[in-house]
Amino acid sequence: MTMNDMKNEAETAKLFSMALYSVMYPVFNQLEQVNLSAAQTLRAAFIKAEKENPGLTQSIVIKILEKKRLRINYNESLLRMAGDGVEEFMIDRQEPEFQELNERARTLKHILSTIPDEISDRVSFLQTIKDIASAIKELLDTVNSVFKKYQYQNRRVLEQQKKEFVKYSKSFSDTLKTFFKDGKVINVFDSANHLIHQTNMILQAFKTVV
Amino acid sequence: MEDDVKKVKKPGIVSPFKRVFLKGEKGRDKKAQEKATERRALHTFSLSQPDHRIDPDILLNDYIEKEVKYLGQLTSVPGYLNPSSRTEVLQLIDNARKSHQLAGQLTSEQDAVVSLSAYNIKLVWRDGEDIILRVPIHDIAAVSYIRDDSLHLVVIKTAQESGGSPCPSSCPDLNKSQTLSSLSESGAVLVEVCCLLVLAVDNKAAAEELCLLLSQVFQIVYTESTIDFLDRAIFDGATTPTRHLSLYSGKEWNRSVLFVKTFVKFQNFTCKHFADDSSSKVDVKEAFEEEGGTFPFQASVEAEGNSPTTSTPASPQTKTASEGELSTTAAELLQDYMTTLRTKLSSQEIQQFATLLHQYRNGSSIHEFCINLRQLYGDSRKFLLLGLRPFIPEKDSQHFENFLETIGVKDGRGIITDSFGRYRRTASSASDSTTNGNGAVGGSGDSAASDEGQEASEGDEWDRMITDISNDIEALGCSMDQEGVTP
């Protein structure tokens, strides 16, 4: 296995948890209306199992799709679903900066989730990209203003998470450049999913560290 | 039989009138034929059907020519003209032809060549190659194809050249003797105007081909600009003020970081695509990539950053993230900056630049700074001025921006005006107190709880960074002299 392969594997592993929180969490939420206890038990079980075996949830979901013979693109579906808010990542603090962080993250994820609908039309896709650019900038501006205003012991952790986000933003931009040459939409979906995941990780970092 | 005899050409007296007339006609035909054979072949490529797709690289790095007939250009056309309305456009063209603003009959005299690339469309006469006009892509608003009986018209709606005045709505044709003030005094409602470039081609296929080629140009340009916008948004957001400073100083640091990155951006931009155009086509990938390897000045910057002599922030907890981090970032950016200078300026010019920067920091006016730099860089390198943006304090930024515009150097040609508009520099109340390095606000440099003291220390920090960079530039000039390196 080459270094590149290992790197790709590591990056793929980061995305595994999206299957849990983007696909399964909404299912558990709905199940709670039917059987609260069962839903909570299932949720806890999945969380634990995923933690011990990253990728398990994704495998289960894909197997279910196969079993049901549903011909859908997993990455595309994940992207569409990822625009929905995940309550677990929302920051509880009421200060305006943190609420703004929640809002900006939500906006970015929502716009990214519209990519499958817009990508086939060049003009509207370009507009979507502009909106994504603005949303990324606004999210980073809010992160910067939180850094400026608040003093943290664990600032390095937050900085690191921000760096990761920037890295995946750049990767998203590179993917778009390649897409405009080769037309392969699947790579754009994949990259957008990564960016959504990093957005959630920023929220998680601020939620747990601060 | 008699008919056959009649048909035989008999030698005899030919009417002088006929002789002259026929000779003239034959001469014209001969001339036209000679002209046709003398004309150079067009620079063209085969296009894939049915949508006339062309390799984008050709539009980016080359060009394609098509033969057209140039009927003329209508100016001061109301901007609200609907280019997809056949009636409106034809009405304008008919009126123009009646008043001889556009050619009536189509002859070989209107033969022209349109040269198309991702940067502009250029129109030259087919014979003689004299240039008729050039329209940058960002000035093109719309392209229309109108078939009027046997006439196949391609009409290009473009911006009116600067210097043209807005036109009063009541009078489409601008009266050149009227001034803007007289127009406003008369109470006329001013409307934006545009131009219509009217071309004719041989047939529908040629018209569609031209329209589709232009459409592909737009796609390329707007796609590139959009990605560029995305890259810039990421870059802008990525630069973090790593010290707990007031917004004022944070912006100053951001500007300096941005300066260096922008510098490298435009280096790559120029090398890749243009000689003298500052359209917003930039590849920032290289600017983002960290440059490894050692650099002679890196050590000195790091040492400076780690020294305990920097100002103490007001709050003891604001032990900043990292003078280490700051220094590492500064070192990287400085490295980029130095690399660019080495490739763009000679050693003498680098020293001159350092002197000018030093003078500006020590009190010379922004106007003088701009003029001197413009002289130093010349026409071919005036784009380097863009990279100075982050170094320009807020109070001088407006003058600087105006200066850039007057010399025709401005990134983002307004293709995505709305989006770029969001990120234009806006006056920030927090930045109003920016100095040009000529001393900080407030007097004492003590680490004090007072605001003045904090601002002074922040201003000192900024000054220190600029001094470091200026000294390093001067040293670079000296080292280049010693090495005998020529750009």
Automatic annotation (TrEMBL), chain A:
Single Gene Ontology MF annotation: protein kinase binding
Domain Programmed cell death protein 10 dimerisation: 15-70
One record GO biological process: regulation of Golgi organization
Keyword list, A-Z: Cell membrane, Cytoplasm, Membrane
GO cellular component entries: cytoplasm; FAR/SIN/STRIPAK complex; plasma membrane
Naturally occurring in which organism (per UniProt): Solea senegalensis (Senegalese sole)
Pfam family, one: PDC10_C
Protein name per the record: Programmed cell death protein 10 dimerisation domain-containing protein
